[in-house]
Structures
1.
Amino acid sequence: MSKIALITGATSGIGEACAHVFAREGYSLVLTGRRLERLEKLASHLNKKYDTEIAISSFDVSDRAQVQENLDGIPEAWKNVDVLINNAGLSQGLDPIQNGNIDDWETMIDTNVKGLLYVSRIVSNWMIENGKGHIINLGSIAGKEVYLNGNVYCATKHAVDALNKGMRIDLLPHGIRVTAVHPGAVETEFSEVRFKGDKERAKKVYDGFEPLVAQDIAETIWFVASRPAHVNINDLVIMPTAQATAGNIFRK
Ligand SMILES: NC(=O)c1ccc[n+]([C@@H]2O[C@H](COP(=O)([O-])OP(=O)(O)OC[C@H]3O[C@@H](n4cnc5c(N)ncnc54)[C@H](OP(=O)(O)O)[C@@H]3O)[C@@H](O)[C@H]2O)c1
């Protein structure tokens, strides 16, 4: 089997675009996400287009037992993972702290922080056993700054930033590369998920400027993953040209 990339949240947006790019580059893929139908459709498409070998595993990253059971259940040959893309994540709501929806907070913390940890705990041990690997964590500019009403989402992405640094130190003796990629505004299903299906409100986020698209991030992640083995990109922030900070967007 060729090199293997395991991508969490491959059913949409950045994760799906990464699946396309890594398939194009000859990787075999383990694709995960909750929406099984989308995983099946994507796997069949990539297999036809690139003749890619693909394993799919449908689970909720925020459910510790599901993560354990599903990753344990992957056939042994597929555990020889070269690149883990910790991409599954989401934002829920945009409320001031005093009005925050506590269920939204739990979902973001459970997915963006605990989910990333559950997956990394298992896959980093496979990598240690295999003597190689690269973990690429999807952070955000929300992990580098804080914006109005972004409170808990920003806190989860600050946690990803800290975990990225911590993993890099802890995995150093094992030669495992660790990188965080922190995008600004990328037009995916992200805002639709944040606003719970309100497409109009989601669309307004990208009004009047050219946001990044998932492909921009996937190509950047490919750049990071395809550096020579002695090169580790620790931290990469990528923005639309029209965006300077989270709240500073030049709209026409
Ligand atoms: N779009 C942006 O502006 C932006 C900016 C900075 C950072 N990011 C980060 O980039 C990552 C990808 O987001 P995106 O923009 O591509 O959004 P997206 O289009 O909504 O995709 C999110 C992906 O995460 C998966 N996911 C969410 N919750 C999950 C769970 N509990 N278990 C398993 N998978 C789960 C979804 O799959 P299922 O629903 O099928 O499970 C989906 O495949 C996220 O970590 C996000 O925070 C996005």
Note: Residues 22 and 222 are 7 Å apart (CA to CA).
2.
Amino acid sequence: MAEVNIYEGAIDKGLEGVVACTTSISFIVGNTLNYRGYTIEDLAANSTFEEVVFLLWNNRLPNKAELTAFSAELNKNMALSPEFIAVLKTLPTNVHPMAWLRTAVSLLAHWDTDANDNSIEANSRKAVRLTAKMGALVTAFEAIRNKREVLAPKADKSIAYNFMYMLKGAEPEADLVKLFDTCLILHADHELNCSAFATRVTTSSLSDMHSAIVSAIGALKGPLHGGANEQVMVMLAKIGTIEKAQQFVQDALSAKEKVMGIGHRVYKDGDPRAAILRKFSEQLTKKIGKPELYEMSALIDDTMNKQKGLMPNVDFYSATVYHSMGIPTDIFTPIFAVSRIAGWIAHANEQYEKNRIYRPRGKWQGKEGLNWQPVEQR
Ligand SMILES: CC(C)(COP(=O)(O)OP(=O)(O)OC[C@H]1O[C@@H](n2cnc3c(N)ncnc32)[C@H](O)[C@@H]1OP(=O)(O)O)[C@@H](O)C(=O)NCCC(=O)NCCS
């Protein structure tokens, strides 16, 4: 009989409770989240996305000159070249934007002279280019599928401003840019979440940064991770009116179906990002004259808490926030990528610094001792 590997180690399905590495990027304890030692509430109230990206990558806040130089560097790298836009226009757009984005980021590597250079210097140049261009890619997709011109970003404007400007082709309202910037801060990193882990797994083979980010986009796309924000909006549209919300939750629970945007592997007493987004949702749905969207969300939140003790995660209220900003529903998850690339890069760099390849084991549950037979005898 062939020797079979029967692994007897403890199994942690979904790696729950497994501590896979040391990290100093972001940390969750109880219902608090911090980036590099600063609470998410502090950063959301006082910081900008660019400043948070600097913080995540450099383990400290920038001084004024550093922030100005870093923001300028990001701004300079935002635009897509006409040659690259021409290639993007050849890609079919009848796919999910996350699938298109995955391909577009992979294609960026073909134009990046540092693509195969894993030195610290090359990785820091690629980090800036990838982060700066993520919003330009998502908005280019929206322009191409609507047969509109792909706009160039405006000089001296932030990632948040340029995203909103290039998405709609119009000057965005200043208060919405501020709110959107805060949304980017809230989504920038989250310890060893699924896509950060995917980044680290790919990086751990000493593969390149573009490959790691493509892995991350693939992981983020799923409805149990970043894809949940889009699904929340789909769910609200399906429910339709507030009167039907409680029954919808009852039916989902009876059918053992997941209510999107609710629950979390780590937070059991609530996600601090959801608390901030809930206020934005209330404010913005009122502003656009659709307060019932917030009210329906709040009722689902309350019902899930009472019925299952589960609370909303970051994706629950961000859905109505983005909807109120007039953003198409299938662009919600790509926005997550526009922000989370900051964290993915921090994780890739931390992994390169202290690398050991990820290689867990699987407990064998298959057949044993079979003998090959010629095809005629099977
Ligand atoms: C976030 C999530 C993937 C965490 O998964 P997890 O840690 O593996 O938790 P589980 O799926 O094992 O859930 C534990 C229990 O809560 C229930 N549960 C968790 N989330 C639920 C949800 N959104 N709706 C209904 N029930 C839920 C599970 O059915 C399970 O119940 P049981 O013990 O009676 O079988 C999960 O809560 C989920 O699928 N949520 C919806 C998708 C989502 O919003 N994802 C974004 C995450 S930021």
Note: Residues 14, 224-225, 228, 258-265, 308, 310, 313-315 surround coenzyme A (CB under 6 Å).
